[in-house]
Amino acid sequence: MRFLTAAILFVVSATLILVGIAQRTVWHPPANHVSVVSVDTKTPLIVIKSSALRQFEGNPLVSVKTTGKSFIASGRQADVDAWVGSTNHVVVAALSGSDNSKLIATAVAGNGKLANPAGSDLWRTEVNAVGDLKSRIKLSDKTAVLVASDGFADAPTQISLTWRIVFDPTPSNVLIIVGGIMLLAAVILNWLAWYQMRKERGPRRRTPRAPQGPKLRRRRTRSSAPVRGRRSARNLSVAVTGLIVAGSLTGCSVLPGSASPSPALSGATSIQQPPVVTAAQLHTIVQRIASVVALADAGRDSKILATRVSGPAFDSRKAHYILQKASKKVKGLPLIASQKLSLLLPAASNLWPRTVMVISSTGAADNLPQMLVLQQKTPRSQYQLWYNIGMLPGAKLPVVNTPAVGAIPVAADSLFLKIAPNALPTAFGDLIDNGQSSLSAPMFDVSDDEYYKQVAASQQSQATTLDNATIKMKHLLGNPNVISLSTVNSGALVAVFMNDKYVIKPKDRTQAVAVSGNEKLLLGSAGSSTGIKSFYGSMLLFYVPAIASKDKIITLGATQVLLSVKSL
């Protein structure tokens, strides 16, 4: 019986080993899935849709063949479509139906303006070269690809998509290993059976048999009762074990070529839109802005500055350039820090303009972080730095969503907050002028607000020391573009520009108003007998709680810059 068991084990082991080897040779899948498309229409732009990139599992390699310039960029499909707009282009998509491995190219006529797509802030990745070009595209949510030359000449027409087929050797390894173990067991069992057979065939002493009486022959009857005994039980267990092992190992095998398209990544919620940029995109955008600002600061060139800076941030820096040109003793404003980004809060929106808030720092202990507020007006424009606000010491930020989720934009006249964001300068300015007697005092928490304390103390000191002159102060909304993003508790982070106007007039004509420091540099003289009108700009960052919240409005950051000084 042992010889039979060994033979069964040998057959099963040989079968398992052969199946394992076949999975690595005969049944081994090809190295790649390849889809090729040839564009017959001459066009400056080719858009490869998300459906074409997701034909097979994994991140595809996009390859183009050309003798001229080549450019490949990836981005969210909605962003790629928005950038292309109504420009003449070709759309490459997967053929709907059973055969999803076939690509079709459809020409889309348009009359939009041509432009070079290189360097756009919308792209997650971009590469360019002269001649053939390849780019591995990392798929996340709905990713699309833009292929071009320089946006004006015809785009490359030979495009191929390649997906790696990942072969898992684990099933074949298991089959080969288990088959080898069973083969070894068959050899051992066969040797034991042979050894036992030789042992039982040794010399035996024959003893005479005693006389026996007649035997009574009984008729044998067939019984349906199960056969009992050690041999029958052992044979049954060996057969059952062999069937179980073979069945389980057969179930572990993987048929090649059965890969299915990778599932689309789902967003945080089905209602909220995806964030306008990824964390990697935002790092690139901040570095680009920082390099442009550094170049503009070095030459005090407002034209270079205007390519990446707008609004209050531009007005503040341009005014400081005038001061620096008037005196070499005036130090430059702090550079845009891009070494460390500690808070990334993109807006969750598909519309323009788009907004991003990010806190950056140099990482040094003596440098306070900066809140950079960026905005992109149109799909083809770059993100501009609108607010550059220094964070106040000890400021505690409210809880906000992660960069992968983003924040919902809040309207400037929203009625769901403690106060509408565009009304903040007037209310906060009245608090600065009148202190706790202001009607807006109950809404603000200024117990740890160093900016409020310094500005209020300076104004009060001026009012008390001017014996021969009068001073009037007014705080207004300096720019209508108030940028707000929601927090987790239904509040909002609000970036706003407050214009501070100070008018000082002498009480009689025999007196004059004297100025010093930066005001003297901008005025060009030491004072005026008719009076002085000064404008300061304050970029402020507030946390404004929801209207039903018991929390108060807190100043998180502030940057004040002298804008202009004029004689009355």
List the helices and strands and how they pair.
Elements: H1 2-24, E1 32-38, E2 45-48, H2 50-53, E3 61-65, E4 69-76, H3 77-84, E5 89-94, E6 103-108, E7 125-130, E8 133-136, E9 143-148, E10 158-164, H4 170-200, H5 230-252, H6 279-299, H7 302-305, H8 311-326, E11 340-346, E12 354-361, E13 370-376, E14 384-390, H9 424-434, H10 450-465, E15 469-477, E16 483-486, E17 492-506, E18 513-514, H11 517-523, E19 527-528, E20 532-544, E21 554-567
Parallel strand pairs: 2-5
Antiparallel strand pairs: 1-10, 2-9, 3-8, 3-10, 4-7, 4-9, 5-6, 11-12, 12-13, 13-14, 15-17, 16-17, 17-20, 18-19, 20-21
Brief synopsis:
With 568 residues, the protein is α+β, with helices and mostly antiparallel strands. The protein is built from 11 helices and 21 strands. The longest helix has 31 residues, at 170-200.
Structure commentary:
The chain is of the alpha+beta class. It has three domains: 55 residues; 133 residues, Jelly Rolls (Sandwich), CATH 2.60.120; 289 residues, no CATH class. The chain is built from eleven helices and 21 strands. β16 and β17 form a beta hairpin. The longest helix has 31 residues.
Largest sheet: 6 strands, mixed
- The structural class is alpha+beta
Q: What is the rounded Rg?
A: 40 Å
Determine the oligomeric state from the structure: single chain
SS field, number of helical segments: 11
Question: N-to-C terminal Cα separation, in Å?
Answer: 119 Å
Average residue pLDDT = 84
- Taken together, the total number of domains comes to 3
In what order do the strands lie side by side in the largest sheet? 6-5-2-9-4-7
Described by the principal axes of the CA atoms, the overall outline is elongated
Contiguous runs where pLDDT drops below 50 for at least 5 residues: 223-270
Question: What percent of residues adopt helix (DSSP H or I)?
Answer: 25-40%
Q: Tally the beta strands.
A: 21
Strand content: 25-35%
